[in-house]
Amino acid sequence: MTIEAKTTETATSRIRLGMVGGGIGAFIGGVHRMAARLDNRFELVAGALSSSPDKAVASGHELGLSPDRVYSSYKDMAIREARLKNGIEAVAIVTPNNVHYEAAREFLKRGIHVICDKPLTSSLADAKKLKKAADESGALFILTHNYTGYPMVRQAREMISAGELGDLRVVQVEYAQDWLTEALETTGAKGAVWRTDPKQSGVGGSTGDIGTHAFNLASFVTGLTLDSLAADLDSFVEGRRVDDNAHVMLRFAGGAKGMLWCSQVAPGNENSLKLRVFGTKGGLEWAQEDPNRLWFTPFGQEKRLITRGGAGAGAAAARVTRIPGGHPEGYLEAFATIYTEAAHAIEARRNGKTVDKSVVYPTVDDGVNGVAFIEACVASSRKNAAWVKL
Hints:
By secondary structure, the chain is an alpha/beta fold.
């Protein structure tokens, strides 16, 4: 991925994008729009940006959308855009979890590609129905597990796939935050309100919001398949209806073992996602808050630092690196990588070509696995941390 290649993109070649949710004041909507714009591959042309008609109109105006492409419902948007000659080719769904299934289904059945925030849905039953809808549609489905877009995450995945760690034995992943240490949801803070409401978030709290990211990251990097888990979930904040802390033991197919901790009540942690993988030949360590560095230790040798854009970084990292080493790339760039991978796939489909094998992004199958993980954690915890098969 080079700067020169991106700057030659023209407005006419951009993918026409719509958005469901993400109106005024929505953090994640802004992130998706920045990610979509960064590599000049998408143009936002339509939106059903809020369930409130007034807010939807105001949000569309703020974003410079044509008034006739601003909708008060995602169903109306899907119907009309599918009929327009220059209607949207893809839609980004950035709503609370309980809206994902119905919204995505409306666009999929009209052949519009879907780029959906995680987790896939608020229940495993809906996740399975959405996978069926995606498979039957033939449209592409991209799930924005954005941490898989970091170059050093791609580097770790490439090294493990090449056997540099040998047979994998231990996987440790954690995702700790502190923003829900107190009952923020009682103040009316929108992000906290819906994330702690099981009707909107699903049965998982921290397990659904950030535990799925940790689980997906471990699966993406190692290539391992989770066989079973034992989970101890807590709701430490009085009155909270979903978990805010989870300790999960993992058993992978093939014999590797793992541990996952996710917490939103860990003071001093802002967005502390960390992964460590150990095999018969060595170990790897990566932290999201220092994302341009990957530590590699071959067994019996000195610890080695591999940097993004630096010596030792391989092809998988290089193809998603935008600027020279020493110039930090971070969260927005990683998120943009998912959008650009989606663009590669959409453009290949548009031109009747097969997408290059190097293009990698989370799919609806990853989404189903993520929701299965959440529900297995809840089921295990209700049985006093009994082992549960996925």
